[in-house]
Write a structure and sequence with these properties.
The complex is a heterodimer. Chain A is α+β, with helices and mostly antiparallel strands. Chain A has helices at residues 17-28, 35-50, 52-59, 64-89, 127-130, 136-142, 172-178, 220-238, 262-267, 330-333, 336-349, 400-410; strands at residues 204-205, 243-244, 250-255, 260-261, 275-286, 292-300, 314-318, 321-329, 357-361, 367-374, 377-384. In chain A, the strands form 2 sheets. In chain A, strands 2, 3, 5, 6, 7, 8, 9, 10 and 11 form a 9-stranded mixed beta sheet that branches. Chain A has a two-stranded antiparallel ribbon with strand order 1-4. Chain B folds into 2 domains: 1-84, Rna Polymerase Sigma Factor, Chain: A; 96-171, Winged helix-like DNA-binding domain superfamily/Winged helix DNA-binding domain (Arc Repressor Mutant, subunit A, Orthogonal Bundle), CATH 1.10.10.10. In chain B, helix 2 (32-49) packs across helix 3. The chains are: A alpha+beta, B mainly alpha. At the A-B interface, helix 1, helix 2 and helix 8 of A face helix 1, helix 2, helix 3, helix 4 and helix 5 of B.
């Protein structure tokens, strides 16, 4: 019995193990790595070997696979945080969408009712008050807020702090001992935990190599159209119908290129001193059910920075400008719980104004700090895939002085 | 190992196993361009994981295992679907062939085209078994599947080839 394949007849008896082997050996023998490919590969390997030592240190804390999932995790957590703070802060405006909030001392709201001169603490609000999604409890339970003094870390109103809690330069453990609950004002989830003392061998904070200049000044409005086109191209290539939900794009800011050492951090008077103008974007894509299904991270392609492109990236050209696009599969790396939470949060928030929010990549695209500005108050919230890295506690709220103190202490000096 | 020694070692591995990596990637991904990407990525991963290589398996098994994993990453990624797959990139032709040779080549061409049309999991196992001439245990280690599954997939792959070319593809 024989059958035509590509117009050729094959004899039954010839189709056996030897024939298969012969066909493969003969067919594949013409496939050889070109000199160019070999040289290019060896060059890359040499580079890899040379920077191997430094990367080895980082890899102790950064499983590379987490890098893909991190933008989503960061986005989710930041949005949850924003949702939470917005919601609490809107108490004064009596948003009809808000869950009812009690006015007793143990169910105060964050935001407009904050007394800047006092550092206060109170029990965590009930889940019904705080947010609709279950995982938020974990955030609430762990949130601590410390008095913010943007200028010098020592508050002029220090005397007003109950019990003379001292300056911002004190340790978290110390403040835990000294501050007392107030009757009104800021709600914080009070935990007794002192600053995480887990030490690392990392001597500097670094951001991802995937970055484009001028991210902080770039108008998101100008990029919406290219981003929409990127999503369209992505959909065409993948036969999907995912959508970019307006207002959910996250701007990720990078640290200065040379990295931030403990000394640089200590010497910095303001967090802006350690930031570069570089960064990248995270685009959450939703499916027809409104669930986040993919995240694309996007930055402009710089031919002078080939390290920014990995083999799994794709470069799209939109209006003659090239963008490096990386895909994050939500299902692969992010728990269903977090995925659901992100979707719920996005649905609840609608459009997000990121003007009061800075997300900083502090660990090669793996760990982030969200800086939330509310009036004159700045909150530094670690969003970490590697909990405890740099001595930071995930999702806990720090002020600038505390952030500097904890991180600089835990960086190898 | 010093960086210089490491560089020499990687150069040796690239020269010795590079073509095997390129070929298995070509068969699995059915794309020369992607195969070249896999080639580079495989050896970068070899560099990164060299210190953890315990030599419990042969160098070839270790490197092919990495290459298969890289291929799988590519296949999982959306980008692979952008590539236009051509099944006729492995061709046999020569103007000076005699009729017998032409017939033989045609048979080979038909068979290799059939192999390339196999589902991924059968294509990779056929390549490892017949081309790389690996044993069931090595294939089991590389694909991280039980030996029995390796055998059953081989059986199924042969059966599929049999169906596709209408012959009795058994050994």
């Amino acid at each position: 019995m024989a059958e035509s394949l590509n117009g050729k007849q094959i004899n039954n008896s010839a189709v056996n193990d030897d024939m298969i082997k012969d066909a493969l050996k003969s067919g594949l023998s013409s496939i050889n790595a070109s000199d160019c490919l070999v040289n290019k590969t060896l060059l890359k390997c040499r580079d890899e070997i040379e920077k191997g030592k430094q990367e080895k240190k980082s890899k102790l804390f950064i499983p590379w696979i987490f890098r893909l999932g991190t933008p989503l995790a960061a986005g989710a957590l930041v949005l949850v945080l924003l949702f939470n703070t917005n919601k609490l802060g809107m108490k004064g405006s009596s948003s009809p969408d808000m869950a009812p909030q009690a006015s007793s001392s143990d169910t105060m709201s964050l935001g407009g009712m904050v007394n800047e001169s006092k550092l206060m603490e109170a029990p965590v609000p009930s889940p019904e008050e705080a947010r609709p999604a279950e995982p938020q409890e974990a955030i609430d339970d762990r949130v601590e807020l410390f008095k913010e003094d943007i200028d010098d870390g020592v508050g002029p109103d220090q005397k007003d702090i109950d019990g003379g809690a001292g300056s911002d330069e004190r340790g978290i453990g110390e403040s835990d001992e000294e501050v007392k609950p107030a009757e009104e004002g800021l709600i914080i989830g009070y935990t007794k935990s002192a600053e995480t003392t887990e030490s690392t061998e990392i001597s500097e904070l670094h951001s991802s190599a995937k970055r484009e200049p001028g991210i902080r000044e770039t108008s998101l409005t100008e990029l919406e159209q290219p981003f929409i086109e990127i999503v369209n191209l992505y959909n065409q290539a993948n036969e999907t119908e995912l959508m970019l939900k307006e207002g959910t794009i996250l701007r990720i800011t990078c640290l200065i290129k040379e990295g931030v050492s403990a000394k640089m951090l200590i010497d910095a008077n303001d967090f802006n001193e350690i930031l570069s103008d570089d960064g990248y974007w995270a685009l959450p894509l939703i499916n027809e059910n409104g669930d986040i299904e993919k995240i694309l991270t996007v930055c402009a392609y710089d031919p002078g920075n080939p390290e920014a492109v990995s083999s799994l990236d794709i470069i799209y050209t939109i209006n003659r400008k090239k963008y490096i696009v990386s895909e994050v599969s939500v299902g692969d790396n992010i728990s269903a719980e977090l995925k659901g939470l992100l979707s719920d949060t996005l649905n609840s928030l609608g459009d997000i104004d990121d003007s009061g929010l800075v997300i900083i990549d502090i660990n090669y695209g793996t760990d982030f700090i969200a800086i939330v500005e509310m009036g004159e108050r700045r909150m530094f919230v670690p969003l970490l895939m590697n909990d405890g890295v740099f001595g930071l506690e995930n999702k806990k709220i720090y002020n600038w002085a505390m952030f500097k103190r904890v991180v600089s202490t835990n960086l190898e000096q | 190992m010093t960086p210089s020694e490491m560089t020499n070692e990687i150069t040796r591995l690239v020269e010795e196993y590079g073509n095997d990596v390129l070929r298995i990637a070509t068969v699995i991904l059915k794309s020369k361009e992607l195969a070249e990407d896999v080639y580079q990525e495989t050896f970068l991963r070899v560099v990164r994981s060299y210190s953890s290589y315990r030599r419990e398996s042969s160098e070839k098994t270790w490197i092919i295992s990495i290459a298969v994993n890289v291929c799988r990453d590519y296949m999982r990624s959306a980008w692979k679907r952008r590539v236009i797959v051509t099944d006729d990139f492995l061709t046999y032709s020569s103007d000076n062939d005699t009729e017998d040779i032409i017939e033989k080549r045609s048979e080979r061409q038909a068979l290799i085209n059939a192999i390339l049309k196999l589902p991924d999991k059968y294509r990779e196992i056929i390549h490892l078994y017949y081309y790389q001439e690996m044993g069931i245990k090595d294939i089991s280690d590389i694909l991280r599947i039980p030996g029995g599954t390796v055998k059953s997939r081989l059986f199924k792959a042969r059966a599929l080839l049999h169906d596709m070319i209408g012959g009795e593809a058994h050994g």
